[in-house]
Design a protein that fits this description.
This protein has helices spanning about 5-25, 30-40, 100-105; strands at about 60-65, 75-80, 85-90, 110-115. The chain has about 140 residues and is α+β, with helices and mostly antiparallel strands. The protein has a four-stranded mixed sheet. Strand 3 (about 85-90), helix 3 (about 100-105) and strand 4 (about 110-115) form a beta-alpha-beta unit.
C-alpha cells in the first residue's frame, strides 16, 4: 500500500472515531426523558402539577363500564398511537387523570398512553366514594 493510501486510511479512521464516541456519549433523547419523568412521578418525585392547561385533555376523555353493576364506569384519558406499546398512568390520592396532562399532550413517539381516573376520582363513578386519606 502506498504512503498516500495509508495516510488516507488513517485520516478516515481518525474522523470515524469521534463520531462513534459522540454517539456513545450523547445525552438520551426525549423518549427516555419522558419515561424517566413518568418513573419519577410514580415514586412521588413529580413537580407540583402539570404545566399543560387541563383543557388540553378534554378531547382525550372516554369511559367504560366495569362489570354489570350500575354506577361502575371508569373514566380515562387516552393519547398517542393506538396499538403501540401501552403505558398506563395511575394518579395518586387525591388526584385525577388530568394530573398527567403533560404526558398526554406530548406522549412518547409510538406509545399508546392511558391515564385512569380511579373509582371515585376525576370523572369515574361512584360519585359518593370516600376519596380523602383522612376519611379512609
Amino acid at each position: 500500500m502506498s504512503q498516500a493510501a495509508e495516510r488516507n486510511k488513517a485520516d478516515k479512521a481518525h474522523v470515524a472515531l469521534p463520531m462513534l464516541a459522540n454517539r456513545a456519549t450523547r445525552l438520551p433523547g426525549p423518549p427516555l426523558w419522558t419515561a424517566l419523568g413518568v418513573a419519577l412521578a410514580a415514586v412521588g418525585c413529580a413537580p407540583p402539577g402539570p404545566k399543560a392547561p387541563l383543557s388540553a385533555t378534554e378531547g382525550l376523555r372516554s369511559s367504560m363500564a366495569v362489570g354489570s353493576l350500575p354506577d361502575t364506569r371508569i373514566s380515562y384519558l387516552r393519547a398517542g398511537t393506538p396499538g403501540g406499546p401501552l403505558v398506563v398512568l395511575v394518579h395518586g390520592t387525591p388526584g385525577s387523570a388530568t394530573g398527567w396532562a403533560d404526558y398526554l399532550t406530548a406522549p412518547p413517539v409510538g406509545a399508546d398512553v392511558v391515564a385512569l381516573d380511579r373509582p371515585g376520582f376525576g370523572a369515574s363513578a361512584p360519585d359518593g366514594a370516600v376519596i380523602s386519606l383522612a376519611a379512609q
